[in-house]
Design a protein that fits this description.
By secondary structure, the protein is mainly alpha-helical. It has 20 helices and two strands. The chain is globular and about 70 Å long.
Length: 496
């Protein structure tokens, strides 16, 4: 329920101002841990309270707009919320609350330093993600996309050792290199062709009558310029960023960064190119093939990783390629599958990362082989991990099943049956590198029994993954309202 005087237009502004105000409060309370954490939770709660009525308004047909500045004719810093952006905003604001709770337990019990800086940049990153979600055009989205990269760099480098600095440099180099070297030129070319970068139903470039050669060139520039989508071979920033504390890994994989990437990919295909135009481009077939190969290859690499976070990182590379695949197939079913994957993957993957972080906090161990037998000592934790793994794999009754179904239908609609086999292979590999972890924890004898003093993981690191694991289950049953909510992205009369 919105407060008195609230309007959807005001809500757009507050979606970014609330996290920024929270960041200021966090720094103000830098020396007072209780007040700092209270400010973090209050800010996250206020943001969600602001986003909920926005989501409801969009579901009722509203498309709130807010113009901040006009740089030139057709170049505005402006916001406009539609169903896809509303879903992304809802996911990010909901998971910020859960991730903050987990962060308190993780950061305090692992004696992490520089906590005020950590929570400050976390809030800035959420504000940037909100800007991405609410953008009315590519120019505005590009500005906040870059702000998200810069605000998460200190989080990746948080530990301030040589390993974290190296990982952060790779993170920054690849993400800035792809966006400035490819995404920015694509945006400039779009403006030169169409006289604007606005997101338009049916596709800006389709309405401008762009030819196949130029359309294919732009599609390649956008696909690889959106480096946060981690399409191979511009994916190495993602496993290198795993040097960060686990709450940052959860932010990167589930709440903001990679979701901003694949969200941008879908926005570009739906509103800059237009699905119908993309289906005519030979370049889209090539990119769909690269995405399908990435799905399988990243899964194979994940199986070789013993470090738990490294395995989950390559799992994310694979799972993000589902969304790129849906975008390049560009059929209604495939695009719905990609949009659903944003939601389903977010809740499942944050469950897995928080589970890995809780296990590390309890044991000081971080390898897959270290989990043997620990399920009997931490059943809630590994039960939650199992739910997240089942959802990623696509096993019912978990929400991760639905994107695979819609993407398979989309591949059949596009006449690319072979892609269905890639999706099946991915699910089989998911069993081999994800389901095996809780199976090892519950059914294998421990390598060494914990001492009598072993107390398990702190509650604040266990409760959040249990909640998100249960959400991954609930999402299986909530797919119909989510599907109906997303349908307007295609315009009138289109039903996947």
């Amino acid at each position: 329920m919105s407060f008195a005087g609230w309007t959807p237009e005001l809500g757009l502004a507050l979606a970014m101002l609330i996290p920024l105000a929270g960041a200021a409060a966090i720094i103000s309370f830098a020396r007072f841990p209780v007040l700092r954490e209270t400010a973090t939770m209050a800010t996250a709660g206020l943001l969600l309270a602001n986003v909920i009525p926005l989501v409801i308004a969009v579901g009722q047909g509203a498309r709130p707009e807010l113009q901040i500045a006009q740089i030139a004719d057709g170049l505005d810093i402006a916001f406009r919320l539609e169903p896809l952006g509303a879903v992304f905003a809802a996911v990010a604001s909901t998971l910020w609350i859960v991730n903050s709770l987990f962060s308190f337990g993780y950061m305090n019990n692992n004696n992490e330093k520089n906590k005020p800086r950590f929570y400050f940049f976390f809030a800035i990153a959420i504000a940037s993600a909100m800007g991405v979600a609410l953008s009315a055009n590519m120019l505005t989205l590009f500005v906040f996309y870059e702000a998200l990269t810069l605000s998460t760099y200190p989080l990746v480098a948080h530990k301030e050792n040589e390993t974290s600095r190296r990982g952060a440099r790779i993170y920054l180099l690849i993400l800035l290199g792809t966006s400035l070297g490819l995404l920015l030129p694509a945006t400039v070319m779009t403006y030169a062709i169409a006289g604007t970068t606005d997101f338009i139903q049916g596709g800006l470039l389709a309405q401008a009558g762009v030819g196949l050669a130029m359309g294919g060139t732009l599609l390649f520039l956008y696909a690889y310029g959106i480096g946060k989508a981690a399409l191979m071979p511009v994916h190495p920033w993602l496993p290198n960023a795993m040097v960060a504390p686990t709450p940052v890994s959860a932010l990167l994989h589930a709440v903001a960064v990679v979701k901003a990437g694949v969200f941008t990919m879908l926005k570009v295909v739906i509103y800059i190119f237009g699905p119908g135009f993309v289906q005519t481009l030979p370049a889209a077939d090539w990119l769909a093939g690269i995405a399908a190969v990435s799905i399988v290859l990243a899964s194979v690499i994940a199986m070789t990783k013993n470090n738990l976070k490294a395995r989950l990182a390559y799992s994310t590379v694979s799972q993000l390629s589902y969304i790129t695949l849906g975008a390049m197939l560009a059929t209604p079913a495939a695009l719905i599958g990609g949009a659903l994957q944003i939601v389903m993957h977010a809740f499942a993957k944050i469950t897995l990362f928080m589970g890995a972080g809780a296990f590390y906090t309890a044991t000081g161990k971080s390898n897959v082989t270290d989990t043997r037998g620990y399920g009997r000592y931490m059943p809630w934790l590994f039960g939650a991990f199992l739910m997240g793994a089942l959802s990623i794999t696509g096993i019912p009754p978990f929400g991760g099943m639905w994107p695979k179904i819609f993407l398979s239908l989309g591949a059949l609609d596009a006449g690319q049956t072979w892609i269905v086999y890639a999706l099946v292979a991915s699910s089989i590999l998911n069993v081999g590198y994800l389901i095996v972890i809780p199976a090892r924890a519950f059914f294998s004898p421990p390598t060494e029994a914990p001492t009598r003093e072993f107390k398990g993981a702190p509650k604040l690191t266990v409760i959040p993954p249990v909640l998100t694991g249960c959400a991954a289950l609930a999402l299986f049953f909530l797919v119909e309202p989510l599907y109906n909510y997303l349908l307007p992205i295609f315009g009138e009369g289109v039903t996947p």
